[in-house]
């Protein structure tokens, strides 16, 4: 069975991709869910084939599966230990492994973006550490309400991400240059080094 052809906007440049959507950037921002609908339409022809190709691979799929498993699990365990130290054991390796597994399963079923960061990263650890230190100093929060407060922070973050997806904000990425990506990579490297020096 032959695979369906790739949608043109997957292979095209950012400028051509905007043309493929049929409207300039600001029109996309004013058309709720247009980008999500375009993503679903572009992914739908390939969805079944992706699952069938994995099933047809037989034991050949074990090598990449083990590679991805260890590439995901080892940093998550290390970050979980760091998070446990920073939050006095309130969040630990158990939570980081569980959250990575849940997000990985959801992404495998619904995702279509191979470069999405699903696991825990150093900026995430810093955010939860900051939330913990802030909550500890507040008389109305403290350690006892840290998890509930962090949960509400995540709910508001999810609402903001939903609004960004709704108004196709990901199309703004075409306005960024490679420098932005390199700076983000450098930030993560510096944060790693900072933690290594602290230990």
UniProtKB/TrEMBL annotation:
One of its GO terms (molecular function) is solute:inorganic anion antiporter activity. The keyword Membrane applies. Pfam families: HCO3_cotransp. GO terms for biological process: monoatomic anion transport; monoatomic ion homeostasis. Keywords: Membrane, Transmembrane, Transmembrane helix. It is a multi-pass membrane protein. GO terms for cellular component: plasma membrane. The chain crosses the membrane at residues 57-78, 90-110, 116-134, 146-167. Residues 32-198 form the Bicarbonate transporter-like transmembrane domain. It is found in: Membrane. Belongs to the anion exchanger (TC 2.A.31.3) family. PANTHER family: ANION EXCHANGE PROTEIN, BICARBONATE TRANSPORTER-LIKE TRANSMEMBRANE DOMAIN-CONTAINING PROTEIN. This is Bicarbonate transporter-like transmembrane domain-containing protein. The lineage of its organism: Eukaryota, Viridiplantae, Streptophyta, Embryophyta, Tracheophyta.
């Amino acid at each position: 069975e032959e695979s369906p052809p790739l949608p043109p906007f997957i292979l095209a440049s950012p400028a051509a991709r905007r043309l493929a959507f049929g409207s300039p950037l600001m029109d996309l921002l004013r058309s709720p869910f247009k980008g999500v609908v375009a993503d679903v339409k572009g992914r739908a022809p390939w969805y079944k084939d992706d699952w069938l190709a994995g099933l047809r691979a037989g034991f050949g799929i074990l090598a990449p599966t083990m590679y991805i498993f260890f590439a995901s699990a080892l940093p998550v365990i290390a970050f979980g230990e760091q998070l446990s130290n920073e939050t006095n054991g309130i969040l630990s390796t158990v939570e980081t492994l569980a959250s990575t597994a849940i997000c990985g399963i959801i992404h495998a079923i619904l995702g279509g973006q191979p470069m999405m960061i699903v696991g825990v990263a150093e900026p995430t650890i810093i955010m939860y550490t900051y939330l913990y230190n802030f909550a500890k100093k507040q008389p109305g929060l403290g350690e006892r309400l840290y998890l509930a407060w962090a949960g509400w922070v995540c709910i508001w973050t999810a609402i903001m991400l939903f609004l960004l997806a709704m108004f196709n904000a990901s199309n703004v990425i075409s306005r960024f240059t490679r420098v932005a990506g390199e700076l983000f990579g450098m930030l993560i490297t510096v944060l790693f080094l900072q933690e290594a020096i602290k230990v």
